[in-house]
Amino acid sequence: MAPIFGSKDEKPPPLSGPVPLNWVRNKNGNFFKFATFDVQRAGLAGGGVFVIWHSGAKPGWVMVGASGDLAKSIGALLNDPEVLQYNARGGLFLTWTLIRPEYHAGVIKFLRESMKPLIDRDPTSPADVEAIPVMAPGGASRPTE
To answer: String of b and e for 30-40 (b: at least 16 CB within 10 Å)?
Structure first.
């Protein structure tokens, strides 16, 4: 899968609205269940942006992040008690999208501002980083399964 916004040699077109991202789903077309996610089996490789959320009566965005090594970053979160505590709220779900590193900060800034995740460990985005509007997983402002 090629990273969003083309290759390093291509200049992206000007944005005219939120960019639809290719949020990865499992072979059945569903988002991944966090509790049973296997990094190796999913073939997770490369860098990009990930989103974790919980479903239930009041679904909520749990965490958004960017990483140059998604397998390592998500693998570490699979045993993180702060993240896992939200599994009791209807189950945790996960997706990611491959994005070139130079766009990570702008996409993360937009997702943090629009989703207001329950866990936000990363430093605040610098003021000079322009938010890049993107579509949330499922194209919704509220999390879905």
So the answer is: ebbebeebebe
